[in-house]
Amino acid sequence: MAVIGFILSVLSGILLVFGDIKNFAILYSIGNVITITSTCFLMGPMKQLKSMVETSRIVSTIIFFVALGATLAVALILGERPGTWILVLLCVIIQWLAFTWYSISYIPFAQTCVKKFVGGVLED
User: What pLDDT, in 10s, does the model give residues 19-52?
Assistant: First the structure.
C-alpha cells in the first residue's frame, strides 16, 4: 500500500512538470493519504489513530490534514485560474513539512536534533 502511495506521489510530480496543477494536487494528496493509511496495517487502525493524537504528533497531524484539505479545496475550487499553482504548491509544501515532522516523531530524539540543527543554521 505504501508503494501505491509513493507511485501516486511520483505520478503527481510528472503532472506538475506538465502543468496539470489540479490533477497534481489530487494525486499528491491521495498518495499521502494512502501512505498514512498503509501504516494502519503495521500498527492496527486504533493504535495508529491513538498514536496520531499523542502530544508529540497532534500538531503535525492537524496541520497535515488541514493542508491536505486546503490543497484539494484550492485545486478543485480554483481549478486552472492564474495563480492557483502558487497556492497549491504552498499547501503541498506545508503538507510535506507536516508529514515529515510527523514521521520523524517516531525516531527517538529526531525532532530535538532537527530543532537544534535548524536553530544552529539560523544563528549563523
Answer: 778 888 888 888 888 888 888 888 888 988 898 8
The angle at the Cα of 87, spanning 37 to 8, to the nearest 5 degrees, equals 35
Tell me the pTM: 0.80
SS (H, E, C) the chain: CHHHHHHHHHHHHHHHHCCCHHHHHHHHHHHHHHHHHHHHHHHCHHHHHHHHCCCCCHHHHHHHHHHHHHHHHHHHHHCCCCCHHHHHHHHHHHHHHHHHHHHHCCCCCHHHHHHHHHHHHHHC
As a whole number of angstroms, the distance between CA 106 and CA 1 comes to 20
Is 114 exposed, middle or buried (CB count within 10 Å of its CB: 0-12, 13-18, 19+)? Answer: middle
C-alpha cell at 114: 532537527
**pLDDT tens digits, one per residue of 77-98:** 987 788 888 999 899 999 999 9
Q: Which residue has the cell 495508529?
A: 48
Considering only CA atoms, give the Rg of the chain. Answer: 16
